[in-house]
Amino acid sequence: MSHGPLMLDIAGIELTGEERDMLRHPIAGGVILFSRNFESPEQLRALVTELHRLREPALLVAVDQEGGRVQRFRDGFTRLPPAAWFGRCHDENPALALQWAHEVGWLMAAELRAAGIDFSFAPVVDLGSGASEVIGDRAFHAQPGVVAELATAWMRGMHEAGMAAVAKHFPGHGNVVEDSHLALPRDRRDPEEIMMDDLLPFQRLIERGVEAVMPAHVIYERADPQLAGFSRYWLQQILRQRLGFQGVVFSDDLTMAAAGEAGDYPRRARSALDAGCDMVLVCNAPKAAARVLDALQGYTSPAGQMRMIRMHGRGEAEHPSLHLNARWREAVEIVAAYEESPVLDLGL
């Protein structure tokens, strides 16, 4: 059995019999966890162990653990600063900001790897233009070059903890007002502006070895009429050919309102895969996930399956021993600086 092209979710802190059957389906390939799946680090570890043992090769187990507003696991995990804090630090002391982003990227990944999680959908490399509330302080900075450097530092920390990175939301969600969870965002800028600004962080991370990219549920009207995650123009011509990306392309959640532009759930999944996604996400809609499993029966993509192998976590550390690690303690001290002064009045 190989990795299927569907990542789905589960309802609670333990697997049900129906969920086990769905996850053993040949089209299933991964599980994304949410706060509802977490009770304690010990429970999480047991759940992830069971998920990994369901089939061979093991399912990919992922989570959104960016920090700030988007951090699914909190009790027993270090509460991480939002990305924008590192950007404000960079305005005062670039070298220190890069060091801190590196160490907190490692901290995030090390704590997840201690629980067995394969990867987090991070870092966000959208530009913090101020236009998008849903991005907001999830963005490192407004300047593409600063975003690229801070995201690279974060990614390198992740790599040192044995975790692959996912750059999102390609080609950039930071300059649209609408929240794609709730509406259909349209970016009406000139394509060359997007290429010069928003695309730069993705290009830099690709050059530096990022393993995966997640496209935005945004229509860039002057470039292509399709949502980026359903667009051969963005995923094939720009991402694969122009930028030379050879890693995994994950769709954003196909249950988001903006994705409705692509049709019903089976059509959304098929369209995203046909456009160039390797794995599609269907979250918080088990009946929709079941329909996608049935609709994609027989689907295979040997190239996509080979790419997904790189997303498995490397190495593990038992959670108690991680807290004895000097690097962990030093990284927690960096986070403490944020907790003491979230507006960055540090006298740097």
Automatic annotation (TrEMBL):
The active site is at residues 181, 252. The record marks 179 as: Important for catalytic activity. It catalyses: Hydrolysis of terminal non-reducing N-acetyl-D-hexosamine residues in N-acetyl-beta-D-hexosaminides. One of its GO terms (cellular component) is cytoplasm. Substrate binds at residues 64, 72, 138, 168-169. One of its GO terms (molecular function) is beta-N-acetylhexosaminidase activity. Coiled coil: none annotated. The keyword Nucleotidyltransferase does not apply. One of its GO terms (biological process) is peptidoglycan turnover. PROSITE patterns: GLYCOSYL_HYDROL_F3. Residues 14-296 form the Glycoside hydrolase family 3 N-terminal domain. It comes from the Bacteria. InterPro entries: Beta_hexosaminidase_bac, GH, Glyco_hydro_3_AS, Glyco_hydro_3_N, Glyco_hydro_3_N_sf, NagZ_Beta-hexosaminidase. It is found in: Cytoplasm. Pathway: Cell wall biogenesis; peptidoglycan recycling. The keyword Ribosomal protein does not apply. Keywords: Cell cycle, Cell division, Cell shape, Cell wall biogenesis/degradation, Cytoplasm, Glycosidase, Hydrolase, Peptidoglycan synthesis. Pfam families: Glyco_hydro_3 (PF00933). Its EC number is 3.2.1.52. Plays a role in peptidoglycan recycling by cleaving the terminal beta-1,4-linked N-acetylglucosamine (GlcNAc) from peptide-linked peptidoglycan fragments, giving rise to free GlcNAc, anhydro-N-acetylmuramic acid and anhydro-N-acetylmuramic acid-linked peptides. HAMAP family: NagZ (MF_00364). Belongs to the glycosyl hydrolase 3 family. NagZ subfamily. This is Beta-hexosaminidase. It comes from Sedimenticola thiotaurini. The lineage of its organism: Bacteria, Pseudomonadati, Pseudomonadota, Gammaproteobacteria, Chromatiales. The gene is nagZ.
